[in-house]
Amino acid sequence: MTSTVERRSQIVQIVNTQGSIRVEALAQLCSVSSVTIRSDLSYLEKQGYLLRSHGFALPNNRIMHELSIKEKRSQHADVKSLIGQAAVKQIQNGQSIILDSGTTTKEIAANMQHLNDVVVMTSGLDVAMELVSADGVQVRMPGGILRKNALSFSGISAEKSLENYFFDKVFLGVDGYDLKVGITTHNEQEANLNRLMCDISTQIIVVTDSSKFGKRSFHVIREFSGIDMLITDSGIPQEYLQAFQDQGVEVILADTK
Known about the structure:
Elements: H1 4-18, E1 21-22, H2 23-30, H3 34-46, E2 50-53, E3 56-59, H4 69-73, H5 77-88, E4 96-99, H6 103-109, E5 118-122, H7 125-130, E6 137-140, E7 145-147, E8 152-154, H8 156-162, E9 167-173, E10 176-178, E11 182-185, H9 188-199, E12 201-207, E13 219-222, E14 229-232, H10 238-246, E15 250-253
Parallel strand pairs: 4-5, 4-9, 5-6, 9-12, 12-14, 14-15
Antiparallel strand pairs: 1-3, 2-3, 7-8, 10-11, 11-13
Helix pairs in contact: 2-3, 5-6, 8-9
């Protein structure tokens, strides 16, 4: 039987895919009553994941939709490169770090050739491949199930493989960052793995281009105040910059000197 969380995630995906859909059609697709669907839609609307109008569910355009790794690579490439260059300055020889999967963390990996005696755990297949030529970097992967659309590993076996480790830093890519909700991502298993990565790291560093602020996905990784450092670009909205500074989060703008 599908859980409430799984069903609500399914509803968001259906609405975002179809653009709009009637309550009765959703009930049929999810194999539940219209009363249950209305309750789900009420919850999801309050959380900002979708909108309701005259018996229809509509997408909320503030919600980020998952893109393929190919699509992500084509977006904000110059800014991501600068963020990668700024982020690698936070890594010292001899440290152990986690690089989350994603196109921004891949840019960090691309700038690690000069480091020595560094251990990198990464759930990103393309991130690991980027580090093949970095002689001073030992690469480890958690295993698990490969999400081909994202080139990332996740799942229970990936989580189990991390339980007995502890790292100096985790560099976390995000799909969305909302002041009310926090750091979010599209995939439930990936969110679970990201939370564990944060729990076993001394310092949590978020790397993201400014287009992700004010957007959210369905699965929460971390609350707004639960990070130590943010590396982004000068396009970050002023309200977000001020909120981070008020929380004592160090902010580095990679495209300013």
